[in-house]
Amino acid sequence: MTEQQLPAWADPSVSPAVLDAQGVSRRGLLRRAGLFGAAFALGGAATPAVAATGRGHGGEDPRLAYLVGDHHVHSVYSHDAKYTFSQQARAAARYGLDWMVFNEHSNFGHASYGAALEHKEILKARAANPRQLIFQGLEWYIPAAEHCTVFAAPGPHEVDLLTRFELAYDGKLLGYTEGAAGAADTARNEAHAVKAIKWLAEQRRSGYVDDVLVLANHPLRLGIDSPHELRAWRDAAPEIMIGMEGAPGAQGAAIPGWRGATSIRGEYENKPSAQSWAGYPAGAYLTYGGFDWATATVGGLWDSMLAEGRLYSVTTNSDNHRTVFDTWKNGDWPAGQNFDNTGRLPDPVNTDTPQAGSDFWPGQFSRTHVGVTRYGYRAVMTGLREGRVWLDHGHLLDGLEVRLRREHSNGRGVTLGGRLRVRKGEKLTLEITVTSASRPNPQGILPQLAHVDVIRGAVRGAVSDRDTWRAPDTKVVRTTDVSGRKGTYTLRVPVAVGDESCYLRLRGSDGKRNGTGYLGASVDPHGPIPHEPGNGDPWADTWFYSNPIFVDVVG
């Protein structure tokens, strides 16, 4: 495999004079973490997972650097997309991405032709972009449900794994799409999805591939991912099925005057169907501040899964197919060719006229930040698996570091995705270190964080009703106004330990659009709210979210 180079912001041989403001800011964060230079040595595909984590001893988590990425990007190897690998990689570099996943749609043309051709281009893209980590993935049509990102660590079997998986387990290719309650094939199809995830886990255990991960994409877009299915996928192999998109792509779908008067951010423009799970309310089919209802609702579906005491991560990404205001169109097919017999679209052609689209380029608007101690493919996958993740829209923050520690402790404590074992009555401190945006975002706006919310939920263990979507003991417990604060600053929040285990997660926004949360003001007094159809300027409503930290009360 091509030797990787550190990103420019992390490479000591690159002069700070050539970095933009955000690169300088990220280098400063890396220095403060004590990882600049040799301490951030390359952790390539062959780096053992335990070394890639850098997990500390005695319950302490290591110092981390955060790599910015996107696990949901499409190219000419998806039947409904448009761009070449080089176009996507150049855009990702322009907007500061360190890692990205090309997860092309399942399709007979893709399985028969495209996946192998794509792999050759993946290898070329890695060679041409040595400062980026470029994964090959697949957008799996889950039997009886929605889509998932599936991707593997680079290695001799990465494309074979994806192709075998696609042919054996894809719901569209198999005709296993039925998911309506009571339909004859629903139980078989749901079981096949569980079998698929277990198969992936076995490929990892056997060493056929070094690593593989799965994330559910746009889970509530159609309402066909029921709570019991999400739990079943997680339980099949929690080390493989690690979470879901907290916010979908297509964030430019409702820019005023662009797509139409009924447009919604994320293209969440659907109504319940026979395939939808009947227990979802009408409001579940919308986005809230650009985020999926499952994530945006304090005390809702995501929280109901976290309240079981098990990590389930959220991410955000571009789902880039067709960029808003972009002037490229799909090229014309040569006579006799189509996607089914080639597995690849013709290269796009520039028209100099804006073309239809809902998406932003990778890294232009949506960013997933993954905590690592080394730079490399396995390090990114390990960081995702361990839940060291926070996300933002519109480049709202330059940096976020979160630590939960015992009061008066000099240790590093635990960070996002971690667990702290404590006794009843212990006093804890949640330290939230924010680095404000240091430059205008791609829209020309200098983002300003207005508030930071701490959300707390009780951990009650496995639910008896696996279709529940409520966590009644989760709510916003503290809001800190940070309007006007600049640079790097730390908020210290006291946390009292009661009888029950719990978890803490964070959220914040630019403060431009908020209101009473979906489950009422006593739960969430100023949460994200839906926008008017056709009037959802994403740059004027930006949020960040973090993964949880768990507090396990013992004795």
What is the compact description of this entry?
With 555 residues, the protein is an alpha+beta fold. It contains twelve helices and 22 strands. The longest helix has 21 residues, at 108-128.
Q: What would your notes on this structure say?
A:
This protein has 555 residues and is of the alpha+beta class. 21% of the residues lie in helices and 24% in strands. Helix 7 runs parallel beside helix 8. About 3% of the residues have low confidence.
Percentage of residues in DSSP E strands = 15-25%
Q: How would you classify the helix and strand content by structural class?
A: alpha+beta
Helix content: 10-25%
Biggest sheet record:
15 strands, mixed
CA-to-CA gap between the ends?
50 Å
Shape: globular
Continuous helix count: 12
> What's the Cα radius of gyration?
22 Å
Low-pLDDT ranges: 44-58
Strand tally, please? 22
Average pLDDT confidence is 95
Which helices and strands appear, and what pairs or packs with what?
Blueprint: H1 21-32, H2 49-53, E1 65-73, H3 85-94, E2 99-105, H4 108-128, E3 133-141, E4 147-152, H5 158-169, H6 171-174, H7 186-206, E5 212-217, H8 227-236, E6 241-247, E7 287-288, E8 291-292, H9 293-296, H10 301-306, E9 313-316, E10 328-329, H11 339-342, E11 349-350, E12 366-372, H12 377-385, E13 389-393, E14 397-406, E15 419-422, E16 427-436, E17 451-458, E18 474-481, E19 488-496, E20 502-509, E21 543-546, E22 549-553
Parallel strand pairs: 1-2, 2-3, 5-6, 6-9, 15-22
Antiparallel strand pairs: 1-12, 3-4, 4-5, 7-8, 10-11, 12-13, 13-21, 14-16, 16-19, 17-18, 17-20, 20-21, 20-22
Helix pairs in contact: 4-5, 5-7, 7-8
